[in-house]
Design brief:
By secondary structure, this protein is of the alpha/beta class. The protein contains eight helices and nine strands. Strands 2-9-8-7-4-5-6 form a seven-stranded mixed beta sheet, sandwiched between helices. The protein has a two-stranded antiparallel sheet with strand order 1-3.
Length: about 400
């Protein structure tokens, strides 16, 4: 039986009154200084009172090529890493269709509908990307914002699963898959909880940044996903790509959203070189990161509810993985609830540290427009790509 913890109680701790230090006040000695580079462009959404319409106007993008009107005098933030490595002779040869897609998906409460919207937007997004490149060579990986697997109390109740709400075996703090309001006597665990497959749970399922292969919990797929080749990510030629992605992306709504920490972990050399995500990141591929969550990642490990480090630290991890080249990365963040970054919204700060970025409101009726904007960035960034070496 896997050693897992039930994080529900943690989700109820109020963190609104916490005052997080600014991104550039991290204790990490390697945190880069932040500077500005002219040329970024943004599209300002309507007032907050009208931004819930889900129209394309709620999407904001950075860098040229977004197809949106731009405001004058705007800037894009990028980390100043000092001397940038010399990429061959400096002439772009393009990514030649090689793109690594990383989806970092929160598994916290209220994520069921957002995951379904992501799954619905994915086929058109991939089809659009594929239409832009004659030889589309993809790696696609999902990781969630937690290092727990499944639900501890359900694992302990397997294979009977006769625990009910109101029983001592059922945590009272959270039951996202129960009716609302929660009535005593309702099943405490999902009816499809994979009790008969616990022996298939690998250590990587409880590793920050590892690709999701077996989502479990409330509103999760609750089954191993049929990813070809025994990998934790999909590659070109994946059987039933859309359905397989849907399985992996349905990570559920009974976990956490340590988004910056999960992203940082997925960028590390040891997890990509012989580890859980062996050979996922490629030096000669463009990287597109999609982040989708429902609440701010405050950073600093505040109250055990936020990621270690801050936006600058997470950006540095990405840049280190991409050999210091910010233009080899495209960022899409589905979370924002206003035009400017909230003081505690480290993910908003993170994406704006890269030249190519798009943000979408988490409650938009359709994520398609955000992905459309992202495809424009992918096409532009790919054309300008210079692989290291």
């Amino acid at each position: 039986m896997p050693d897992v913890r039930h994080p529900g109680a943690l989700l109820l701790v109020a963190v609104g009154a916490c005052q997080a230090p600014a991104s550039d006040s991290s204790a990490f000695a390697t945190t880069p200084k932040i500077t500005t580079v002219p040329g970024g462009s943004t599209t300002e959404p309507p007032a907050a009172s009208s931004s819930s319409s889900g129209s394309t106007d709620t999407t904001t993008s950075g860098a040229a090529g977004s197809g949106e009107p731009s405001t004058s005098g705007t800037t894009t933030l990028v980390p100043d890493l000092g001397e940038v490595p010399d990429f061959t002779d400096g002439n772009p040869i393009g990514c030649q269709g090689k793109i690594d897609f990383l989806f970092v998906i929160s598994s916290s409460g209220n994520m069921e509908s957002r995951q379904l919207q992501l799954i619905n937007a994915f086929p058109d997004f991939i089809d659009t990307i594929e239409s832009k490149f004659a030889d589309f060579d993809y790696h696609i990986m999902v990781t969630d914002g937690d290092d727990d697997w499944g639900l501890d109390h359900c694992n302990e109740d397997c294979p009977v699963l006769d625990c009910k709400t109101g029983d001592s075996c059922c945590p009272t703090s959270v039951c996202p898959f129960c009716p609302d309001p929660v009535y005593e006597g309702e099943p405490c665990c999902p009816a499809d909880y994979p009790c008969d497959q616990l022996d298939l749970v690998e250590p990587c399922e409880s590793t920050f940044g590892a690709g999701v292969l077996f989502p479990a919990g409330g509103f999760a797929s609750n089954m191993p996903c049929p990813i070809d080749g025994g990998r934790r990510y999909m590659v070109k030629g994946q059987t039933d790509l859309h359905d397989t992605f849907a399985c992996a992306a349905k990570v559920g709504a009974s976990g956490g959203e340590f988004m910056g920490q999960a992203l940082t972990a997925a960028m590390q050399k040891d997890i990509n070189d012989g580890g859980c995500n062996n050979l996922f990141l490629r030096d000669d591929a463009l990287l597109m990161v999609t982040l989708i969550s429902t609440g701010y990642d405050y950073g600093g490990g505040i109250g055990g509810l936020s990621s270690e480090g801050y936006a600058a630290d997470w950006a540095k991890a990405v840049l280190d993985a991409k050999h210091g080249d910010p233009e080899s990365v495209v960022m899409l963040n589905i979370l924002k609830d206003d035009y400017e970054c909230h003081p505690h919204d480290e993910l908003c700060k993170l994406v704006k540290m890269f030249p190519y970025w798009t943000q979408e409101w988490k409650d938009a009726a359709d994520f398609g427009p955000a992905f459309d904007a992202a495809t424009n960035h992918v096409e532009t960034a790919c054309a300008e790509f210079v692989p290291p070496g």
